[in-house]
């Protein structure tokens, strides 16, 4: 039987990295995610799996260490929180432009600016819509439990290498700081040099006489070549949209009212659905697990079935635009959010739901 | 069965680790748990609190505003959390440092003088375990056997010799808890 | 007497050959630029050490952004100033590799100061080749942190004024104080003799990088005749008369011979 350990979401990220054969972690301290690097430093994986862990001088540097490590075909990751992620966006754009695999964890806090250190989901636009410059997408995974934090590291690297694309685990202060039971799976060893050559023949592993030199770059001065590359990215993104959408549903089969919420908000909305069902109101919940690619199709389907939808987010209303796009005017789409690190209670959402639907 | 608990006091009273041991004990009993602390600068010297939810089923919201039990260890927390106990729930508190004792009549109230208990054991660090014992006496959600296992999981291996003393503290708390109000 | 091309190409008549690791791509550098010479030296060192299959180069943003087109090894193209961060991860994850960055003064001494200082501070076992020509070449001759006082650039059209623009940064001397650096030298490539010395400095830096003793830093004081608006010959003369005063040539630190 797999071992069950009580740990914080942040600790789960660190332990999962060690146990899933990650080659390197490069980071910089910031609340509320510092436990990721603290746990790694305490565990000293360089003595067991050989994993490299390094505290960089800034988030700018850590994401560029990721760029260098990923260029070598290694499984490398970093983590930060909102202001630090803003600094990393330059590097993430380069990584997307150089088509490199990596995993970045954003444990969101309230913004803009230095903001607060309490939980928030206000980086949705930044991470899902881009963040850095240029035409690119991150693959975005939204964990809702410490177990998700553990599982999404490995899933993230699978997607990152499958598509040679940055993957962002978009968590929040609640998921990072909350302790839950985590089931740990079998250890996965780090890749050998031979396995890296096979998985990443494009990597800068040193040029033997048997192949052309490998160049990792995002630079092109020729508009036609750049456009061709952009279209190649577009084709890749279409394949991802086709194949990698993931969501879960709670009580939606007969739902007249559907909530859409991700991460910690989806947990809170489960309680909301339970309360409304207890009152005889047929409510349900759709939780996007991938925020990009976004479950447009499933939301469109539910929009035809229900009287209204509501997007519940710890921000001023960011995902709601995608929900409205998906609903396409088929049903009204409302929004309720809290900001600045404040968190809604299930009762509060029930009240807002009734107000929006004229049920009060 | 679902038990939503808030534990609140000063940083340094062992609030977070009490919650962790309770959560681990519930895992030993194959229950689902969440442990959600307040975090950030308020922890440093100010009040610390942690919400622990134990349940037979998967836990939805880790954020609640009404609790089945409030374990309160200082006046600020009494002011903040007395009113959050669900009617019929329990309020467990340490009277030392409390200037305004709880006044609600629709909840069960008990007190545990954990400083005295810790003095009986001879180590101030087991203060929180005496409190935990007091709580478990009135709400035996987890068995003492599983608490002992939970202690083994939360205390680093190099301190495993301290488990008997922690267990003794829990037993002391169970013995000395004093019911103030029972509905 | 005339001599045919075929005769010239006979092995006994060849006195110079393009280094095996320089590609056939036509360099985009301006005539007279030092980059071409330094590229050649780096290619020769890698070839002579027989480490092509164990070397990873990191290009900067600046004129040498396309260095990967000219030296036949694996390359990473960094964001502006970040090459030492890429090199840090590459070396730590692949300790058997020879890892070097190739950076200009805008890249290393301006936008990338945090990365270079901390790579030095951590004692990363990498090589840094630092081309210092006192100007931003690629963007058209703007002031660099290394621009000399009084020197005219497109953003100091009346000459660099300390009150307005501050003083030049002397990076090699600054990082020599850091415990993580092993070998720091300042070279130039304006004469054949200077180029030979620069080449042995580069070789030493590559050798040191496998000894686990810290970062090796080879500054090459260079010309940018187009940015300086001089002929190549005048640029070399101006460099010797002006740049060398602020950036004197020679070894600054060598932890193995200083002991």
Folded structure, characterized:
Chain A is 42% helix and 20% strand. Chain A is an alpha/beta fold. In chain A, strands 3-2-4-5-7-6-13 form a seven-stranded mixed beta sheet, sandwiched between helices. In chain A, strands 10-12-11-14-15 form a five-stranded mixed beta sheet, sandwiched between helices. A two-stranded antiparallel ribbon of chain A has the order 1-8. In chain A, helix 2 links the parallel strand 2 and strand 3. In chain A, helix 1 packs across helix 2 (35-43). The radius of gyration of chain A is 21 Å and the shape is globular. The mean pLDDT of chain A is 96. Chain B has helices at 15-28, 75-81, 114-121, 127-138, 144-154, 163-176, and strands at residues 2-10, 32-37, 47-55, 67-72, 85-93, 108-111, 178-181. Chain B has 183 residues and is an alpha/beta fold. Chain B has a single domain, classed as 3-Layer(aba) Sandwich (Pyruvate-ferredoxin Oxidoreductase, domain 3). Chain B has six helices and seven strands; from the N terminus they run βαβββαββααααβ. Chain C has 259 residues and is α/β, with parallel strands linked by helices. Chain C has a single domain, classed as 3-Layer(aba) Sandwich (Rossmann fold), CATH 3.40.50. Chain C is globular, with a radius of gyration of 18 Å. The mean pLDDT of chain C is 95. At the A-C interface, helix 3, helix 4 and strand 9 of A face strand 1, strand 2, helix 3 and helix 5 of C. Strand 9 of chain A pairs parallel with strand 2 (74-77) of chain C, so a sheet runs across the interface.
Features:
heterotrimer, B: 183 residues, alpha/beta, Pyruvate-ferredoxin Oxidoreductase, domain 3, seven-stranded mixed β-sheet, 36% helix, globular, C: 259 residues, Rossmann fold, two-stranded antiparallel ribbon, 9 strands
């Amino acid at each position: 039987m797999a071992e069950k350990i009580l740990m914080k979401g942040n600790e789960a990220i660190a332990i999962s990295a060690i146990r899933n054969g990650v080659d390197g972690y490069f980071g910089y301290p910031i609340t509320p995610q510092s436990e990721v690097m603290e746990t790694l430093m305490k565990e000293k994986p360089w003595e067991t799996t050989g994993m490299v862990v390094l505290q960089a001088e800034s988030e700018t540097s850590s994401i560029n260490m990721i760029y260098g490590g990923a260029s070598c075909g290694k499984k490398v990751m970093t983590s930060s929180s909102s202001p630090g992620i803003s600094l990393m966006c330059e590097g993430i754009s380069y990584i997307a432009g150089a088509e490199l695999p990596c995993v970045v964890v954003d444990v969101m806090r309230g913004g803009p600016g230095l903001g607060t250190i309490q939980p928030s989901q206000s980086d949705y636009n930044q991470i899902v819509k881009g963040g850095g410059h240029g035409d690119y997408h991150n693959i975005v995974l939204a964990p809702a439990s410490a177990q998700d934090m553990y599982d999404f590291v490995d899933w993230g690297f699978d997607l990152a290498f499958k598509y040679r694309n940055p993957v962002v685990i978009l968590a929040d202060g609640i998921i990072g700081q909350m302790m839950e039971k985590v089931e740990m799976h079998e250890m996965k060893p780090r890749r050998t040099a031979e396995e890296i050559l096979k998985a990443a023949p494009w990597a800068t592993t040193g040029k033997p006489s048997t192949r052309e030199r490998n160049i990792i770059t995002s630079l092109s001065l020729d508009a036609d070549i750049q456009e061709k590359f952009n279209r190649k990215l577009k084709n890749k993104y279409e394949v991802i949209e086709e194949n990698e959408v993931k969501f879960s549903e709670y009580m939606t089969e007969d739902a007249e009212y559907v909530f859409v919420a991700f991460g910690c908000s989806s947990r809170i909305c489960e309680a909301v659905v339970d309360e409304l069902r207890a009152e005889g109101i047929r409510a349900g919940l759709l939780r996007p697990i991938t925020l990009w690619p976004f479950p447009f199709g499933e939301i469109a389907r539910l929009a035809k079935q229900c009287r209204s939808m509501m997007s519940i987010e710890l921000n001023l209303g960011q995902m709601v635009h995608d929900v409205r796009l998906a609903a396409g005017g088929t049903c009204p789409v409302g929004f309720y959010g809290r900001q600045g690190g404040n968190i809604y209670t299930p009762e509060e959402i029930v009240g807002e739901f009734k107000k929006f639907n004229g049920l009060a | 069965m679902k038990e939503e608990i808030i534990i609140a006091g000063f940083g340094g009273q062992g609030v977070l680790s009490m919650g962790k041991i309770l959560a681990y004990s519930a895992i030993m009993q194959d229950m689902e748990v969440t442990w959600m602390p307040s975090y950030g600068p308020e922890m440093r010297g100010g009040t610390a609190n942690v919400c622990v939810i134990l349940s037979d089923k998967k836990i939805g919201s880790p954020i609640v505003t009404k609790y089945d039990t409030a374990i309160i260890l200082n006046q600020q927390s009494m002011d903040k959390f007395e009113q959050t106990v669900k009617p019929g729930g329990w309020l467990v508190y340490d009277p030392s440092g409390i200037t305004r004792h709880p006044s609600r009549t629709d909840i069960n109230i008990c007190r545990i003088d954990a400083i005295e208990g810790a003095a009986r054991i001879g180590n101030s660090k087991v203060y929180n375990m005496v409190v935990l014992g007091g709580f478990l006496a009135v709400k035996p959600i987890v068995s003492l056997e599983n608490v002992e296992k939970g202690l083994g999981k939360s205390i680093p291996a190099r301190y495993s010799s301290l488990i008997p003393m922690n267990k003794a503290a829990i037993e002391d708390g169970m013995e000395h808890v004093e019911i103030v109000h029972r509905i | 007497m005339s001599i045919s091309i075929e005769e010239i190409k006979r092995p006994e008549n060849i006195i110079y050959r393009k280094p095996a690791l320089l590609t056939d791509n036509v360099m985009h550098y301006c005539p007279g630029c030092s980059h071409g010479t330094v590229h050649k030296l780096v290619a020769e060192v890698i070839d002579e050490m027989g480490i092509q299959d164990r070397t990873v180069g990191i290009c900067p943003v600046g004129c040498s952004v396309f260095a990967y087109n000219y030296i036949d090894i694996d390359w990473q193209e960094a964001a502006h100033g970040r090459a030492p961060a890429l090199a840090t991860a590459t070396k730590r994850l692949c300790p058997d590799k020879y890892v070097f960055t190739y950076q200009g003064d805008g890249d290393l001494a301006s936008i990338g100061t945090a990365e270079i200082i901390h790579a030095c501070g951590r004692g990363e076992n990498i090589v840094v080749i630092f081309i210092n020509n006192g100007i931003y070449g690629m963007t058209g001759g703007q002031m660099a942190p290394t621009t000399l006082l009084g020197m005219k650039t497109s953003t100091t059209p009346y000459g660099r004024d300390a009150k307005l623009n501050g003083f030049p940064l002397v990076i090699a001397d600054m990082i020599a104080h850091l415990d993580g650096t092993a070998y720091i030298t300042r070279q130039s490539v304006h004469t054949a003799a200077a180029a030979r010395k620069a080449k042995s400095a580069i070789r030493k830096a590559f050798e040191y990088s496998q000894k686990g003793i810290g970062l090796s830093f080879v500054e090459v004081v260079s010309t940018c005749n187009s940015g300086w608006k001089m002929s190549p010959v005048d640029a070399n003369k101006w460099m010797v008369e002006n740049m060398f005063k602020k950036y004197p040539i020679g070894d600054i630190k060598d932890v193995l011979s200083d002991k």
